[in-house]
Specification:
By secondary structure, the protein is an alpha/beta fold. It has helices spanning 4-13, 15-22, 41-44, 48-58, 66-69, 76-87, 103-117, 132-137, 141-152, 157-177, 179-186; strands at residues 33-39, 63-64, 88-95, 122-127.
């Protein structure tokens, strides 16, 4: 765990991250959570995302993670949608190799971006063991995932297209926040 904490702290010290997470407009100051974490559990739940969550909480950023904050017996999809639309100030999306294989993750991403259009919420991408261009251009494991989605959702091509657009839009934010440059200047 200690190997990941310095990385997470570096991410948090980057002015492009701390400012959106801490200083929110008054229109979203009534939210329950400072951050909603979106991630592919099989890839990052027990490593990077767990450590990132721990550090966020340690520094006082109230963070939603679905395996920690949804009560047993609740409808998970409804609870996550309510948390995205009404209870979270900002969103951190942890992209990993299998993120695009999860329609659940892709649906969350679309909801976040739809909500962002009508609010002042921040969507912050983090790329874990995947290149931002792979996410943006949907190559490698992302291409494989979309090949399967297009087969499985032949009658719902609009939905698959919304997922593609959402990935591109959030990957483009990587260049806006320029997280890698912040980390590289510290080392």
């Amino acid at each position: 765990m200690s190997d990941f904490i310095p990385i997470a702290r570096i991410l948090l010290k980057s002015s492009s991250i701390v400012v959106p997470l801490i200083h929110e407009p008054s229109s979203i100051s009534q939210c329950t959570y400072d951050v909603f974490l979106s991630f592919r559990g099989v890839d990052t739940r027990k490593n990077f995302t767990n450590h990132l969550y721990t550090v966020l909480v340690q520094v006082g950023i109230h963070t939603f993670r679905e395996d920690e904050n949804i009560e047993r017996g609740k409808n998970i999809k409804d609870e996550i949608e309510k948390t995205i639309l009404h209870e979270s100030k900002n969103f951190i999306v942890v992209f990993s190799k299998n993120y695009a294989s999860s329609t659940w993750c892709l649906d969350e991403l679309v909801k976040m971006l739809e909500h962002k259009k009508s609010s002042q919420h921040t969507v912050l991408p983090v790329f874990y063991d995947v290149d931002p261009t792979q996410v943006k251009n949907q190559t490698g494991s992302y291409a494989e995932a979309f090949h399967k989605h297009e087969e499985s959702f032949k009658s719902e091509k609009d939905m698959v297209q919304r997922w593609r657009v959402a990935l591109k839009q959030v990957a483009d934010l990587h260049f806006k926040y320029n997280i890698l440059d912040s980390i590289n200047t510290i080392f």
